[in-house]
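Predict the holo structure. Ligand: FE2/S2 (inorganic) cluster.
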Amino acid sequence: MLEEDLVCYCFEVPRDEIIEIIQKNKACTVDDIQLHCSACLGCGGCRPDLEELLETFSPPPFSLKHGRSSFKE
Ligand code: FES
């Protein structure tokens, strides 16, 4: 694995694993990601990168549709 593929250097968690956790488990927070791996449980230096991946890959939590909140697919 290339070093640039890593997001969390403390626990050697690669970007692909983080994206898979976000998408498969509908992770919306860093805490959600931590339920599935050890990313960000060390120095915390990877938190901004995790938040950026969450912003890019997490599903929208809900939308206001027809005046009611509903989950977006
Ligand atoms: S780089 Fe992720 S906890 Fe240190």
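Residues 9 and 19 are 16 Å apart (CA to CA). Residues 8-10, 39-46 surround FE2/S2 (inorganic) cluster (CB under 6 Å).
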